[in-house]
Structure formats: structure tokens, C-alpha cells
Design goal:
This protein has 265 residues and is α/β, with parallel strands linked by helices. It folds into 2 domains: 117 residues, Rossmann fold (3-Layer(aba) Sandwich), CATH 3.40.50.2300; 117 residues, Winged helix-like DNA-binding domain superfamily/Winged helix DNA-binding domain (Arc Repressor Mutant, subunit A, Orthogonal Bundle). It is built from 9 helices and 12 strands. The strands form 3 sheets. Strands 2-1-3-4-5 form a 5-stranded parallel beta sheet, with helices on both faces. Strand 7 and strand 8 form a beta hairpin. The radius of gyration is 20 Å and the shape is globular. The termini are far apart. The C terminus is likely disordered.
């Protein structure tokens, strides 16, 4: 039996499915195609792909509905393909649960790289065990469950992997490049805007108000920190600073020691 990942590509443009199929096959993937949404749902049930590439605009069922129906049956990573490339369209696709979003026209090499990156995320990242608690939020790293106010928080695979890495390093500043590399892969290590979008999504899931960081603090030009200590920056009963305070202080020294730079994330 072949161990190569199986990709389902659904698009109503035969030229697109043929090009994508040829390119991914050359990259070592197995590929099956569908020419519409209804066929894509049937093929997903039949062949059980490792990842699905869906055009959003299809004549029978759109990609969003196809994604919903496929995921009712089993959890599978999805990349949306669309000619709509605006930031708002991209955010909408991600909000609806897509693992990634690629705007047409796209480079076939980039598409293959994104498929590999999403498959890496789907395989999971082991970044610690235990339970992290703050406010009314509980993050169970071993069971991969997040609750808020006692209610289960629905998170996409990418949201969970990002939060998992922050929670496993709670109280510590995690570098931009580390988050991007660990969660998305080395080819994403400089895509700070991409990281910013996903951090914003996770913040909202944890209860932060729009425009506010909540418990995920930003360190300009450095990275992010999940703050869990109630007495933020205050000494504990033994007179020592908590790990969060130590990392804040270290990050501050790092920032002050750097030469002036243009605005960065």
C-alpha cells in the first residue's frame, strides 16, 4: 500500500484540476480530482483523502458547503482555492475553518509547499503536557481541549497548534520565527502578517475584546507571550519574580539593545 499522501482536488475548471494534479503528482503526492462540489463530497467519502483542495466558487455546491459536509463525516485538512484574493475574503475563509487559503492565480510550487505545510500541521506537534489555566480558560495540552467558562471552545487545527505552542511555553516570549516554523514550516518563517492574522483569531477565541491583546501579549519585533500569572510582574510569596516577569524583563532588555529599525510586527 502506498504511503504517499492522497490529495483530493475539486475545481469546476478542468484546466486547473489538470495542472494542479500534474504538479502535485510530480511532487510525490497521489491525486484524485472532482469537477464539482457534489462529486467532491462523494469522492471524499470514497477515497478518504489526507487533504482536500477546494475551489470556493463551484456551480452545484460551493467550497464552504463542501468543506462543511466533508467535516461532518471526518476531520480532514482543507485548503481553499479562489480568485477572490482580498484580505477580507481570506479572513472569511479562515474564520469558516479552512486550514489555509490560496488565491488564484497561484504558483504551483507555492501550492505544493502549502500542501506539505498543512499536512505537517495535521500530523500534530508534541509541545508539552499538563493543563494551563487563567481567568475562566483551561487549556488541556494532553487531551488537546480548550474550555472557557466551562464550555468547549471550537478551534481549527491551526488555531490549536498555535495556542498549544504558546501554552506549552506559558510565561515565556516565543519568537515569531519559532512560531511560524513550528506551526507552519520553515518556508513560512518570515510571514509575519500571516502569523498576526492567526494570533488575532486565537485571542478572540480566548475572550479578548476586538483590538485588545488579552492574555497573548505582543513584543514588538520579537514574538508573543501567553501570560498566565494573575500577579503579572509581581513577586511571589518567596520574593522571586514569576517566569512571566523574568521573560518580560529579558525581552525589554533585548528590545533596548537592538538598533533602531523600521516598524515591524
Amino acid at each position: 500500500m502506498s504511503t504517499q499522501p492522497l490529495v483530493l482536488v475539486a475545481d469546476d475548471e478542468p484546466r486547473i484540476t489538470k495542472l494542479v494534479s500534474m504538479a502535485l503528482t510530480d511532487e510525490g503526492f497521489r491525486v484524485v480530482t472532482a469537477s464539482g462540489g457534489v462529486e467532491a463530497v462523494a469522492k471524499a467519502e470514497e477515497v478518504r483523502p489526507d487533504i482536500v483542495l477546494l475551489d470556493i466558487v463551484m456551480p452545484d455546491l460551493d467550497g464552504i458547503e463542501v468543506m462543511r459536509q466533508i467535516r461532518e463525516r471526518r476531520s480532514v485538512p482543507v485548503i481553499l482555492l479562489t480568485a477572490r484574493g482580498s484580505a477580507s475574503d481570506k479572513a472569511k475563509g479562515l474564520d469558516l475553518g479552512a486550514d489555509d487559503y490560496v488565491a488564484k492565480p497561484f504558483h504551483l510550487d507555492e501550492l505544493a509547499a502549502r500542501v506539505r505545510a498543512v499536512l505537517r500541521r495535521a500530523s500534530g506537534i508534541s509541545t508539552g503536557t499538563g493543563v494551563v489555566r487563567f481567568d475562566d480558560v483551561e487549556i488541556d495540552l494532553e487531551r488537546r481541549i480548550v474550555t472557557r467558562g466551562g464550555e468547549l471552545v471550537q478551534m481549527s487545527r491551526t488555531e490549536w497548534l498555535l495556542l498549544q505552542h504558546l501554552a506549552a511555553n506559558a510565561g515565556k516570549v516565543v519568537l515569531h520565527t519559532e512560531l511560524l516554523t513550528k506551526v507552519w514550516g520553515p518556508e513560512y518563517r518570515d510571514d509575519l502578517q500571516y502569523l498576526r492574522v492567526w494570533v488575532s483569531r486565537v485571542r478572540r477565541k480566548l475572550g479578548a475584546k476586538p483590538g485588545e491583546p488579552g492574555r497573548i501579549k505582543t513584543f514588538q519585533g520579537i514574538g508573543y507571550l501567553l501570560e498566565v500569572d494573575e500577579d503579572r510582574g509581581a513577586g511571589g510569596a518567596d520574593g522571586h519574580m514569576g517566569s512571566s516577569a523574568v521573560d518580560h524583563e529579558a525581552a525589554s532588555r533585548y528590545t533596548q539593545s537592538r538598533p533602531p529599525q523600521r516598524s515591524r510586527t
